[in-house]
Amino acid sequence: MHGTTLYNMPCSNIEAEKMPQGNQSRAGFAESGAQKALLVLLLTLVTVMPHLTGMAAMAENDSYPQIIGTVSSSDGPVEGARVVLTTLAGDLPSIREVATGPNGSYAFVNLTYGSDYSVEASFNGTRHAKTVQTANDTQRVDFRFTGSLEVEVRLPDGTAAVNVTLQLFTVMGINEVNATTDSTGIGVFEQLDVDDPYEVYLIHERVPYSKIIGFEDSNTSKIEIQILETTTSDAYVKVPLHHVIISQEGDDLGFWEAIDYLNAGETVFNTSWLRGWMQPGAFDISHTSMDCCIQFSEEGPYTFDPMDPLFPGDVYFLEIWYTAEAKVPTQVIEKKIVYDTEALYFLVQEAPKFTAESLEGLELLSVETYDGIQYYNFKGSELKAGDVVRLRLKTELTVLDVLSRNPLIWGSLLFLIPAGAVVYVVAFRKTKGDPMESLEQKKRELFSGLAEAEKNFNEGKITRDAFEKLQKDYKERSIRVLKEINKKRPGKKPRVTSKTSADKGSETTDLLSELKAVDSVLRELRSDYEGGAITKSSYNRISARYQERRSRIEERLRIAGVRDDRKAREE
After folding, report:
1. Are residues 133 and 153 located together in one domain of the fold?
2. Phi–psi pair at 123, nearest 5 degrees
3. Is residue 411 over pLDDT 60?
4. What pLDDT score was predicted for residue 562?
C-alpha cells in the first residue's frame, strides 16, 4: 500500500531529500523532523480510519435488526419514493420515514428485536403497506408497483353498471385507492403491488359486494362482479335446522333455541325483517341479535332485522335464551312453524316424576345424555310454514310440591320465621353491595370498548381481521352480561316492545305494527348513540336504513288510505 511504503522508507533517504545545501542549523533540522512525524501520523489516520469505521458499522448492524428493500414500477427502480416505518406496539407508535435512492432501495436500521412494524411505500398517488416482525437478521420487504387490475360490474339484466365506486382494500384492511366504472361498466386500478392480495368492494342499492383477487405469476388481473336483484320478501327463506332445548330451572322452564335462516332464493334478501316464534309469556330474554333490531310480543311471535343482506345460499344464525313459567300437573309446549323447516329437534331434560310426549308433529327418537344429563330427543321433519308441533309435559305432584306452589299456605308459614333471621338477611344484603350496578357497569364498559374498536377500525388503526375478532369477543361478553342482568331483574315480566302481526290477516295492521317497530328501533338507536354505545358513523348508517324503510311503509299506508297516527296527531 502507498502509505505503508512511504513511512517505511529509510530515514536517511528522507533526510537527504530534505537537507538544504550548505550549512544546516540545528533548529531547521528539528523543524524538518516535526514535519516528518506529522506527515506519518496523517498518513496512518487516512489509511486506518476507514477500516475502523467500517468495522464499527458492521458491528452496529449485526447487533440490531434492520429492514431493507426496494421500490420498483413497470419502468424499473423508483428513486425518491416515500417509505414510512411505523411501530405497531405501544400507545404512541413511533414513525420513521426515508426516501429511496437511485436504485430504488431503502433501509431502516437499529430496530427492536421481536417487534411488529408496518412498512408503507407511496408512488404516484398509490400507497401500499405490509407488516413484518423483526428477528436477529435482516428482513427484506420489496414493493413492486407493476400490477394492473380490471373490474367489470354487470347489472342483473346484463347491462353495464355505470358510475359505480370501487374501493380497493389491502389485507391490512386499508382502503388504498378508489376507481369508478366507465360507460362499459369497467373500472381500472394501476400500479398495484403484485406480491399481495386485495379485496375489491362496492355498494349497490345498499347491498355490499366484494371479491378477493391476487396476481399470482402475472402483472395483470381481471374480475367480474355480478349485481343481483334484491327483495324485501321472505318468501324464499327456509330453516334447514332448528334446535330447542328445554331444561328445568327451579319452578320454571328454561329454553334455548338455535335457528339457521337460509336464503334459498336467487335474489338478495335485504332491509327487511325475519320472523320467529317463542313460548308465549316468556321472560328473562337474551339473544345474539342487536337489541335495537329485534322485537318481541307476549303472545309468542317476534321479528328481527339481520342487518346484513342475505345473498343466495347465505345463512343467518340466531340464538335465543328465555324462561317460561312451568305449569303442573300437565303443560303443553307449542311451536308454530314460521318458515319451511327441514329438521326441528326438541331436547327435553329428563327428571324424576317428569315425562314428555309428542302430541303433534314430533317423533321421539331416543333418550340422549349430554354432560351427564339425560334428554328426551324429539324430531320433526319436513315441516311447512303454518304447521304447529306440540309436546305435553307431565309432572306428578307431592305434598311438598303443592306447598311450594301455593302462596296462601306459605304466606301463613312466613310468620314463623325468627326475627333474627330477617335481620341477618337484611344486614347481609346491605354489606354485599348491589350486583345490578356492577353488571350495569360491565355492560357500559363493554359497549364503550366496542365503540372504541369500531372507531379505531374506521380510522385505520387496526385491521379488519382484528376488528372482527374484537367485535365478536365484545358481543359474546355483552350477551353473557345482559343475560345476567335479565336474571337479576326484580319480577318476571315479559319484555314486550311491540306486537307483531304474524297471524293477523289485515295488511294495514301489519304495516302499522311494522311502523311501530321501526320507530322503536330508531329511538333505541338514538339512545345508544347518545349514551356512547355506538359511534356516529354506525348511528348514521343504521338509522339511514330504518328511515328509508319507514318511508316505504308510509308510502304503502298512504296508498291504502291510512295515515300514520303520529302524523295525524301532529296535524
Report:
1. no
2. -155, 120
3. no
4. 62
